[in-house]
Amino acid sequence: MAEPLLTLSGVHTHIGRYHILQGVDFAVPAGGVTVLLGRNGAGKTTTLRTIMGLWRASAGTLTFDGRPIGSLATPDIARAGIAYVPETMGIFADLTVRENMLLAARSGPPDPGRLDWIFGFFPALKTFWQQPAGVLSGGQKQMLSIARAVVEPRRLILVDEPTKGIAPAIIENMIRAFRELKRSDTTILLVEQNVRFASALGDHAVVMDDGRIVHAGPMAALAADAALQGRLLGLSLESHT
Amino acid sequence: MTQTTPPAAPPAAVTTAVPGRRFDAVPLVLVPLLALVALPLVGSINSWITLTVAGLAMGMMIFVIASGLTLIFGLMDVLNFGHGAFIAVGAYVALSALGPLAGWIQTDALGWNLAALLVAALAAMAVTGVLGLAFERVIVRPVYGQHLKQILITMGGLIVAEQLIRVVWGADQKPMPLPAGLRGAVLFGDIAVEKFRLLAVVVGLSVLGAMLLVLNRTRLGLLIRAGVENGEMVEALGYRIRRLFVAVFVAGSALAGLGGTLWALYRETLTADIGAEVMVLVFIVIIIGGLGSVGGCFIGALLVALTANYTGYLAPKFALVSNIVLMVAVLMVRPNGLWPVAKR
Description:
heterodimer; A: alpha/beta; Rossmann fold; four-stranded antiparallel beta sheet; 10 strands; B: mainly alpha; ABC transporter involved in vitamin B12 uptake, BtuC; two-stranded antiparallel sheet; 4 strands; 3% strand; globular
């Protein structure tokens, strides 16, 4: 396994009086896709938000590229090289597609070559380049959310359930886009419930339950072991496709 | 990045589905519609034009005051009831600045008059901008995300500011000298339009133009618009929303200082509670416009001012409640205001 790019050790997160993450320990190896699986309410989204600093860890350490990030503010975490695609997509509906992309490109206007590369996967973004993002369909908004995260090279991309409610044709292109990103040394931490999507992309699997990590190992091994899936996730991955 | 041949495009139906939302032009129609509805009620074309120009001028002044407040709310959900303090301080600073410039305002030369007003307005904006910086740091920052405390502490800030004004400038009513060149009216045939109201329209349109330019043509404006919509995502993209908010708070306070100067010149008198008096209208405007929406704030300000002027002429007894009725009517049809900002 490659050296970890991101490490969480004994991370606890409280939201109000609720103790959501209860000592989360896992590592995301550099390169490849780590899939974070678990039942609804297991703490997957909270884990991503805690990594981004959107919710503060009440205990434990988070280390990115050898540097502790647990006490950093969200903008500093982003500037350290972590991009975030939230479950809600987080697009700016009143801004055009172009303005959304301009905002995500912190170092200046987006590189035309990289934009062409993105348009190859998500051609609708080129079609609606000057349209307010709010007029896009759900799938197109998801394309924009992912495109925004990759408009400039980032070390790690956190993606929260990108296939939720999305048309199969767009999911195919997302798979291709993420595979391309894997080849470009970008590390992806993916929260996903679509097992076909997770199996197609995942190199490593981490399973959460009740705010704790209950399994970590190769994705292929988990995908091949129906009994393990049943024990960890409550049902077989195959029955979930 | 590894460059490879991009994959084939997905089916056109998936990627090029026609967007469903179109530009909402209804609020733009409301102002001329209101004016046209008022025309037969007023009867006289001359009176109607006078009332309309007066309403537009008043609307521009309210817009100058309210535009910063709506962005402050939109960016950080901060309910700043202390905004009236900046209006009042701005007016008093302008009054003090005009004191040594008596020669410039007493002459009939319009150029010197405008220069005096420019100096007074800049002084008001500078002082209220600095005051806004301190107000945000000391009063607003400790209560981020706590609306009840925001209301209480910012109202407290307003009360303290009013008392400090009385200590510094005195409790008595002050005359606000309108420059000689801006007194009286300009005649267009039989129609008389007060000169100062024309100036207020020009200033209001200039502020609107500048704000639209910054919001739509600069990266700072892009950040503000995005921050109003979803501040958390702006932070996740690597931008410090708090710094942005402080900048907007200072700019909004400075605009309130400019608005206070205009409002005092319009009334030609000022008291320490000049800000609190106008805040009722300001809150109605930003609610009607849609919290956080500059365009909505502009339309809302014009509607509120025109309604106040027409009602004041047609049925003076109902003038005070006319804007409440307007707000209720707008919110019944559009609960989020005329041009609501898309929120997360």
